[in-house]
Amino acid sequence: MTELRKDPIVGRWVIISTERAKRPHDVSEQAAPRVAGVCPLCPGSERMTPPEIMAFRPDGGANDANWTVRVVPNKFPALRIEGDLGKAAEGLYDRMNGVGAHEVVIESERHDVDLYDLPPKQFEDVLWAYRERLIDLKKDKRVKSVMIFKNHGSAAGASLAHSHSQLIALPIVPKRVIEEMTGCKNYYRFRDRCLFCDITMQEMDQKSRIVEENGEFVAYAPYAPRFPFETWIVPKRHQCAYEMIEFEQIRSLAAIFRRTLRRLNLALENPPFNYIIHSAAFQEGAADYYHWHIEIMPKLTKVAGFEWGSGFYINPTPPEEAAKFLRELPE
After folding, report:
1. CATH classification of 178-327 is 3.20.20.370, yes or no?
2. CA 213/CA 215 separation, integer angstroms
3. What pLDDT, in 10s, does the model give residues 180-199?
4. Given this structure, which CATH class describes domain 3-172?
5. Are the beta carbons of 79 and 2 closer than 8 angstroms?
6. Known catalytic residue: 164?
7. Reduced to 3 states, what is the DSSP secondary structure of residue 16?
């Protein structure tokens, strides 16, 4: 049974999931060749995944091979949808059952393409799938927060070469999310304005860290990035949660997101990377002070002893130089 345990010193929850050790791995520094019937995420291998939750397909029935984007439960989940929370204490320690959800968004039917090489419409479908799954999971009152993320490359944590991203629905709000939302709330109490709105306006005015912008979104290097070429994508209109994104915004987001990933790929020669969609926890009141956004983090440096021990990050690349380099790349 998967279990969540709380560190009583810093208030951080840890998922203890022995089943995750059983998951298959086929990622190396080079993309794994496609072998019919072997990759569990390829068309024709639908029997190798749990029954799909949703899919984009021109025609055909559920779980057949005629799809372009597909969402399935993770076969080796960190958390499971079944069961009760079973909150309990063990002396001064708190724990609960590993209840939540863990889903895989298979971004393409093709094994040999990366997310940033998808046709624009298919990239839009991936982003729309994120939204639809958030809206559905929000109905479950046990779920307090959902994390949407992508691991690209083995150094970034990917275990399968076929392009995919994941979402994990949690019965608690992660410490990192609480810290971010608390900082935004404190700023709002003092200024009566959204911190991210103010940051975005200043970045658009100064322009030195801007990578690209369009009518709805802006991509920029944050002022204090943890990692070289870390890039954020932020909506210009104020929205606290990703599931609030509207249909007309999806095309703009897909365009700037896809081009930003392509710029990073060209500049850094196919680096491993992670991206995370930061969205408000499922609680009342966040609409005024929080602002959803996407953080893209190329895996170019290693987090070592100093970083783990201090919480500081050492970044050898000034964000102004990184943004200028990306901005001047040919599209």
Report:
1. no
2. 7
3. 999 999 999 999 999 999 99
4. alpha beta
5. yes
6. yes
7. strand
**3-class DSSP state of 13:** strand
Half-sphere exposure of 141 (CA within 13 A, CB side): 1
Whether the CB-CB separation of 233 and 284 falls below 8 Å is answered with no
Cα 184 versus chain centre, distance: 20
pLDDT in tens, 194-248: 999 999 999 999 999 999 999 999 999 999 999 999 999 999 999 999 999 999 9
Q: Which of 111, 152, 162, 164 is catalytic?
A: 164
Domains 3-172 and 178-327 share a fold: yes
Phi, psi of 102 (to 5 degrees): -140, 110
Run of H or E residues at 256: helix 247-268
* pLDDT given at position 31: 44
Could you give the C-alpha distances from 196 to 17, 203, 204, 284, 289, in angstroms and in order?
35, 10, 12, 19, 9
pTM of the model: 0.92
Give the max Cα distance, the chain. Answer: 60
Q: Which two tokens stand for residue 268?
A: 């850094």
Query: Could you tell me the residue ranges of all domains in the chain?
Result: 3-172, 178-327
241: its two tokens: 């949660």
